[in-house]
Amino acid sequence: MSTTPVVGFQAEESAVVASARRAAAGSLLELEQAWRNPQPDAVVVAARRHLAGAENWADARREGA
């Protein structure tokens, strides 16, 4: 599993969308770190956190926030 860092602010993004994108990228990093030192509970928590962050980002993009 590897991450692609997403940094910066794209001109067409609102602050809400950019914030949600950064949160999703951060939670993906947490998931990668948990995966490297696999403790099942920690991996599940990190995966759920990333899924929630990705859903928030998708919702923000869809709503055009």
Task: Map the helices and strands.
Elements (H helix, E strand, L loop, with lengths): L14 H22 L3 H24 L2
Mean pLDDT over the residues: 83
- Strands, total number: 0
Q: Give the overall silhouette.
A: elongated
Distance between the termini: 30 Å
Q: Which structural class fits the helix and strand makeup? A: mainly alpha
Q: Roughly what percent helix? A: over 70%
Please report the number of helical segments: 2
Low-confidence stretches: none
Order of helices and strands: HH
For the largest beta-sheet, the strand count, sense and barrel status come to: none
Strand composition percent? under 5%
Radius of gyration: 13 Å
Folded structure, characterized:
The radius of gyration is 13 Å and the shape is elongated. The chain has 65 residues and is mostly helical. The longest helix has 24 residues.
Short descriptors:
single chain; 65 residues; mainly alpha; 2 helices; 71% helix
